[in-house]
């Protein structure tokens, strides 16, 4: 966890209605090769995104590769 000492914005995840509180992301985790990341939150869904598609800022909305539902909120 001591690999980085500061945050730099490299990309912005655009995944739908930004004003909808159900889109709040509480957890974010990368796979070991840093090719994919998972985002989870109060929407009761875990969404898997491709990291390089996030870095390519040419799209208006980022769609997940896979989306899994949960019975409970995944909140902070």
Automatic annotation (TrEMBL):
Domain of life: Eukaryota
Any Gene Ontology biological process: photomorphogenesis
Protein name: Uncharacterized protein
Organism of origin: Nymphaea colorata (pocket water lily)
UniProt lineage: Eukaryota, Viridiplantae, Streptophyta, Embryophyta, Tracheophyta
InterPro entries documented for this protein: SPA1/2/3/4, WD40/YVTN_repeat-like_dom_sf
PANTHER family: PROTEIN SPA1-RELATED 2, PROTEIN SUPPRESSOR OF PHYA-105 1
């Amino acid at each position: 966890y001591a690999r980085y000492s500061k945050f730099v914005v490299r990309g912005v995840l655009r995944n739908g209605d930004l004003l909808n509180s159900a889109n709040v992301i509480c957890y974010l985790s990368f796979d070991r090769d840093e090719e994919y990341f998972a985002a989870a939150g109060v929407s009761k869904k875990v969404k898997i995104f491709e990291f390089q598609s996030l870095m390519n800022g040419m799209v208006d909305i980022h769609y997940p590769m896979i989306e899994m539902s949960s019975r409970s909120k995944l909140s902070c």
